[in-house]
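FAQ: What does the model actually see?

It sees only this:
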Amino acid sequence: MAKTLTIRVDDETYRTFVSRAKTENRSVANFIENAVKSHIQEHDFVDDVEMAEILANERLVARLKKGSQQAKRRKGTLVG
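And it is asked to produce this:
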């Protein structure tokens, strides 16, 4: 179910939102929703270059696999 969210922004930020929304033929609310989703997606996932660096690090990959196996068996220590 969709939720309503109220945010407070300064006049300059609001004008930027309105301008960008008009450029993309969207409502301000839809523009903000899509901008936030895009931001989250960019920061939650690694790009191809980062993934290649991770996979090239054999020690790291081995530690990740070991940690994953321990988690499946509910072993090891969760560090927060």
